[in-house]
Amino acid sequence: SYVLTQPPSVSAAPGTTATITCGGHNIVTKTVNWYQQRPGQAPLMVISYDTDRPSGIPERFSGSNSGNTATLTISRVEAGDEADYYCHVWDSSSDQRVFGGGTKLTVL
Amino acid sequence: ELQLVESGGGLVKPGGSLRLSCAASGFTFSSHGMHWIRQAPGKGLEWVSSIIGNSRYIYYADSVKGRFTISRDNAKNSLYLQMNSLRAEDTGVFYCARGVGRHFDQDGFDLWGQGALVTVSS
Q1: What is the pLDDT of residues B110-122, one digit of tens each?
Q2: Which of A8, B23, B37, B82 has the fewest C-beta atoms under 10 angstroms from its C-beta?
Q3: How close, in Å, is residue A31 to chain B by CA atoms?
């Protein structure tokens, strides 16, 4: 089955840029979605279809997808961005949806 | 108001059954694929099952195939998950979620419920 690999943790100081990666074999051929989950809350979609930002999501959030790595970039990091972030794809070979293991973003 | 509300969670013994419901409001329910995603305590998200708007296509994670059944009633704007032969490892919060509505298979999940806690324990 298809595997998505995320770093367990990433840290960034306020005002700087945080980069969260999602690795998968030839992931560029797949559509990647990203979610933010704050403690005790349901997940919230922050990026869909690799680069699309849902209504209400700040422009500071952006996504890219190339080769074997998809990336979520958070510019001008704020304290409120501290959360777990998950990537997700559909694996056509197995008709399964797959989540990455999640990355905890700590704002220093 | 745009929302999803799950119900039906609770404590059940191993081998038992439970039926989750998800009531949708504020959007055209039949136009969206719907999904169940779960999260074990302290763990990450795990996709469970998906159903297209007209129920023609249904998919399950390997971990629940043969034990769980997803269904929907578009007239009632409701999504269901019948869970049989429950195991301790099924314990967690179960979220229902709406697909974006562009392409059923590739869609992300743009609306989530608050979750229903399922605890499987003797």
Answers
A1: 999 999 999 999 9
A2: A8
A3: 6
